[in-house]
Amino acid sequence: MPTPAKLLHDQPIAQRIDALLDLSKQHAEHFCSPGAWLARQRYRAQHPTSIVVMKCMDGRIHIPHATRTPLGIITPFRNLGGIFDLGWPYLGELLTDAVIDAASVGHATLMLITYHFSSGHQARGCAGFDCDTEAAKAHAYAIAKQAGQLFGNDYQQVYPLVCGFETDSDALIIHGHHNEVLDIRDWRNQPVEDLAVALASVCPDMPKEIQRDLLPLLKGNLAHISDLQSAERVLDIEHREWVICIGRGFDFLHLPNTALIIGPYGPNLAEPIGTAAVIIDANMRAGRIPDDGFMLLASTPYQHSGVDRARAELKSRFLSDFAEHVIQREHPALAKKMRRHTAVVHWPTRRLDSLT
């Protein structure tokens, strides 16, 4: 039987867009449900460490799902290839604000810096690094070094943790600061209670409260990959992306090989937009997706009505116009198949509000 993601890829463009927007509505409804809201409140009371994750736009890397963590606990930063530079002012400001907000109420921050790969086939690795796992890992370590420069190398307030994600199994691989490794795949037949000792051994410089709040993610990941091991799983090998996303607020998009997400986290947005357009065009030419169109989705989150929302609207329209201009200039034939959709996201509810 075809997977829901494959069925979505095979539909005409209008139906694909409607299905994607419906997915965003379902995500917001679940996020705002009483049970989900209470789960977040309870979890934060028990595990107050703030958790941010730097990750690739690849829809397979869904950390809350893979760790069985309630939605809204982990703050994501997603970009093509998981490529970031903390020196870029906007990204540095977002991260710093998140860290200061946590510190002001007495909480530390765990910064998960991820890279991903496939143990079964190199071609299922990270396209942003040409499936070169060592290059992706080296970049993750470079971000961790920048985090130390930004927040302190004693790692007491902010702990940058390089974390691999093996996409065939959804397993986490924790890298200590002195080349120690904790691979959750190795724990499928071991007592879950021993994970705490293993984590302390791999990350002895990690503050105890951060270890305590990372442990549920590791235990959840162990349960998740153990369940997947006994289930038949379809591994999407080919690129089938048909959406280019630019901006932020795409939490609902975790369908494998569906969207190429470009965060506003660097000074040169034109290059990743052009790269994404090349991938979309190649997908059409190879017959992996219908050639009747692709979606350009621009989004900006906002917290409050009034000026905050108005600024988000302006930003989304700017990003949408900018991306359209790049695609028209570099890929004029493909641009004729573009379906623009501009939106803002009410972040407290994750509601996607269309502007066009």
TrEMBL record:
Domain Carboxysome Shell Carbonic Anhydrase catalytic: residue ranges: 53-175
Q: Which InterPro entries match?
A: CsoSCA_cat
Name one matching Pfam family.
Answer: CsoSCA_cat
> Which protein, by its recorded name, is this?
Carboxysome Shell Carbonic Anhydrase catalytic domain-containing protein
List the source organism: Halomonas qinghailakensis
